[in-house]
Each structure stands twice: as structure tokens, then as C-alpha cells.
Amino acid sequence: MNNLNHISIEKVNAFYGDNQVLKDVTVGFPRKQITAIIGPSGCGKSTLLKCFNRLIDLTEGASVSGKIIVDGMDVLSGNIDVTDVRRKMGLLPQKPNPLPMSIYDNIAYGPKLHGKPDKKELDEIVEKYLKIAGLWDEVKDRLKSSANKLSIGQQQRLCLARGLAVEPEIILCDEPTSALDPVSSQHIEQQLLKLKKDYTIVIVTHNIHQAMRLADYVVHLYLGELVEHGAANEVFENPKEERTRAYINGTFLTELKIDSEINLKGNVCPFNFVYAKQALHALEKGKILKLIVDDPLAVTEVPRGMEADGHEVLSVKQINKTDWEIVIQKER
Ligand SMILES: Nc1ncnc2c1ncn2[C@@H]1O[C@H](COP(=O)(O)OP(=O)(O)OP(=O)(O)O)[C@@H](O)[C@H]1O
Ligand SMILES: [Mg+2]
Whose CB has fewer CB within 10 Å in the chain, the N or C terminal residue? Predict the structure, then answer.
């Protein structure tokens, strides 16, 4: 197997009772690259991540066979230290789950458990990882306040910092932005792109746009089988397998042919929202509207409002220092 791979899995089979949910999966995850695992609901994406860090052991009736080699060590072998394995691989969950303690203690908890560094060292660790997770500037003046008071997006960056503070080599993310608003998602995506300089990242995502923005490699699973694996640009632009093409086209919707575009720069909320609503009203169902806004509030509030109205927000991205582009599909 390719030794550029940080994780190499070979003929992995997983069962819940008699139900086989991973079937002879053989694939590699390159070092210091982002690999996205895509595939429809129930195809085994989360199960595969749980095999990597042996979280699957906690599910009664689950069994796994095959090999999962990380740095030459087989994670599935009986004589492995599971704590060691989990320390090597940090998991960023779908919904942030801060510990019920202060921001500072959330980060300091793991390092204290593992090595009991002194106060000065802990201060440095807390600052370092909050900076890496892109949260330091927002929380440096309230490190002693409760982590639960942070916004959901901030909590997710806190969880990222907490996971990094125990110095893993691999970051596993199971739909890490699905509970976040578009701006917080973009924050997390930006951090992941920076982190791949030092870490191997595996991300499970339902969002093809997100996979396209982040992934260097893609693994497509379908009903527990590996359908296709390859460099992201090849898989997305020219998939070898018809099932991959169908999945990508079905999820990616149209090739984002914009039917109408309005420039709302200079407007503030709630006018942005009202104008966007009027523009969507004038469109037929399924058509796509692009908005350009420069009011920071509009970047979160317009997508939220549009989704509440039943439309689908296809993308939100910053296009220059002040302007954002929001693409919305009118409810089908
Ligand atoms: N604890 C469990 N006990 C029994 N069956 C399970 C358990 N967890 C998952 N499954 C089943 O295993 C299959 C794979 O589930 P898994 O959660 O890995 O899918 P997934 O690709 O992550 O799906 P989703 O995109 O919905 O998160 C599904 O059929 C699911 O119902
Ligand atoms: Mg899942």
C-alpha cells in the first residue's frame, strides 16, 4: 500500500448484529491532506470514522474485521492501547459538545489529564490552541466564563481547540458544520484548510459544495461499499463510476446556473431581507437567485430567513473584503 497514506484500511467489514454496514472497504487517507467521505444517508460514513478511533467498541453488538493501519500500527488489533489511538485522532462532532466548565478549562482539561503541565504552560497551551482554532480574539477577555455562553459557532471552534490541545495527528470530523449557520461554517472550513498543513483530516459531509471547497481526496461510499476514490478534482469533474456521477449531480443540483441576480450593497437588514424576498417571489419555483450584500448582519440573517421560508441556501461566500454572495434556490 502507498506509504504516503497516514491511514490505510484493508478489507474492513463492520456489522451491527447481523446487519453488515461496511463491506470489504479498502482505501487510503493521505497524510496532511483533507479526504472527504461522501455518500447517501446510512451508507456507513459515521461507522467508518468510529472504526478509526475504536469508538465503535462502545456500541453493543457491533463487530469489525480487517485492518486499519495508522503509522504502521493496526488500530483493530487486540493488543493496542485504545487511549493512545483516540489521542492520535481527535474527533470533531456534528454538534458542539463543550464540557460544562469555563472556556479555559475546556482546553486545559485534556492536557491536564495527560501530563499535568504547570499553570504557565497551561496558559500557553490554551492561548495557542484557541488561536489555531480561530477563536482567541473573540474570547481572550473572558476565558473564565462558561463555555456554554458562547454561540454555537464559537462552541464548535472551542471543540476544535479542545481536540487539538491533546496533540492528535489526525482530525476526524463527522459533519462538523451541519449544526452551524453559514458564517460559522465558513469559519470552521477556513480553520480546517489551515490545519491541513500539520494534520491529516478526514471529513464526513453531506454537503457536496463543502466537499468541493475542502477536499483533496474523495471517498464515495454506497450501501457500505467503496464506489470510488480519487483526487477530488478528478472525482468531481470526471467521476469514473456512474453511481458517483449520479450522486454528485443529484446533490449538487444544477451547475448553479443563476437565473437572477440583485446587488443589495448599501442596504441594511431588514431591507436586504425584504428585497431578497421580493426578488424570489418574482421567480418560478426551482430558479436560482444570487444576492450580493455588504451588511454583516445580512450574511447570517438573510440565509436563516430564506431557509425558514422553505427556500434552499446553496452557498454563502465572501467574495472580497466587504462583499458576500448568497445563492438561494426558490422552494421546489
Ligand atoms: N448503533 C447502531 N445499531 C444498529 N445499527 C446501526 C447503528 N448505528 C448505525 N446503524 C446502521 O448502520 C448503517 C450505517 O450507519 P451510519 O451511521 O454509519 O451511516 P451514515 O452514512 O453516517 O449516515 P448519515 O449520513 O445519515 O449520518 C445504517 O443502516 C444505520 O441504520
Ligand atoms: Mg453519519
Answer: C
Tally of domains in the chain: 2
Spell out which residues line ligand 1, taking CB within 6 angstroms. Answer: 16, 21, 39, 41-47, 59
> Of all protein residues, whose CA lies closest to atom 25 belonging to ligand 1?
41
Same domain, 111 and 187: yes
Residues 56 and 78 reside in one and the same domain: yes
Containing domain of residue 318, as a range? 260-329
Which residue lies with its CA nearest to atom 7 of ligand 1?
16
> How far is the C-alpha of 130 from the C-alpha of 138, rounded, in Å?
10
Distance 16 CA to ligand 1 centre (A): 9
CATH number at residue 93: 3.40.50.300
- What is the per-residue pLDDT across 113-145, written as a single tens digit (0 to 9) for each? 888 789 999 999 999 999 999 899 999 999 999
Is 50 exceeded by the pLDDT of residue 254?
no
**Chain-centre distance of CA 214, in angstroms?**
9
Query: Whose Cα sits closest to atom 17 in ligand 1?
Result: 46
Distance of CA 121 to the CA centre of its chain: 30
Does a cis peptide bond (omega within 30 degrees of 0) precede residue 30?
Answer: no
C-alpha 42 to ligand 1 mean position (Å): 5
**pTM of this prediction?**
0.77
Same-domain status, 187 and 265: no
Tell me, in angstroms, the distance from the centre of ligand 2 to residue 243's CA.
Answer: 20
Q: Which residue carries 437565473 as its cell?
A: 259
Phi and psi angles of residue 328, each rounded to the nearest 5 degrees, phi first? -125, 135
**256 dihedral zone (left: phi>0; alpha: psi -120 to 50; beta):** left
3-state helix, strand, coil in the chain (%, to 5): 40, 30, 35
In this structure, are 279 and 316 located in the same domain?
A: yes
